[in-house]
Design a protein that fits this description.
Layout (H helix, E strand, L loop, with lengths): L3 H22 L19 H13 L7 E5 L1 H4 L4 H4 L5 E5 L5 H6 L1 H4 L7 E5 L2 H5 L4 H18 L5 E4 L11 H17 L3 E4 L26 H15 L2
Helix pairs in contact: 8-9
Amino acid sequence: MKPRHTLLAIAIALILGLAAPSLFAQDRPATQPATTRPTGPARWEKEIAAFEAADRANPPTRGGIVFTGSSTIRRWTTLAQDFPGQNVLNRGFGGCQIEDCTYFADRIVLTYEPKMIVLRAGGNDIHAGKSAERVFEDWKTFVAKIRTKMPDVPIVFLSLSPAPSRWNERDENKKLNDLILADTKSQPNLKFIDTYDMTLTADGKAREELFVSDRLHFNEAGYKLLVERVRPMLTK
């Protein structure tokens, strides 16, 4: 038979062993809920804030040509070199849609008091499932937002062009282009630059050589063609 003090020690050890998990659990931080990813225009807040920080550090000259829109603009890193002598400013962000450009227009377009605005967006809208008619309404809302502050500034729509990775969306892209083209012809100071055929071969196939490996974004050759389409509008 074991001594009584030995049995008591074993009992105490067992009690402490059973209690330890709950005791230590009190010292652990509570599990934090998963961070909710922002939706809608709010998902681009960090990028917009970064533009504003850059403006504070190096204020851009007002009265220039502001380019805004989705990744075709965002990735256009040679914009200033492509249009020498022009006061151009790149404010493209993320994989945005036209409604995002409208939401942030005060902060990344109107604040610069531009003499011209170039918008290239709408492809992500269609890729997200919006119809060309719905995206056209978003275009009109963008124009209306600009017109509240700058009723006469030229607004240029840089049209969509088929990308190999989104080849099945090309007809809807063309439909949106046609709707916006008709709108630009019906109102003063709305302009249209057609780039739809730029990425097509003579027999209507995709020009793969104009895109990087993702088959969605332009490579250097693609941007070279884009510059040729845009330059006449900026030098008028």
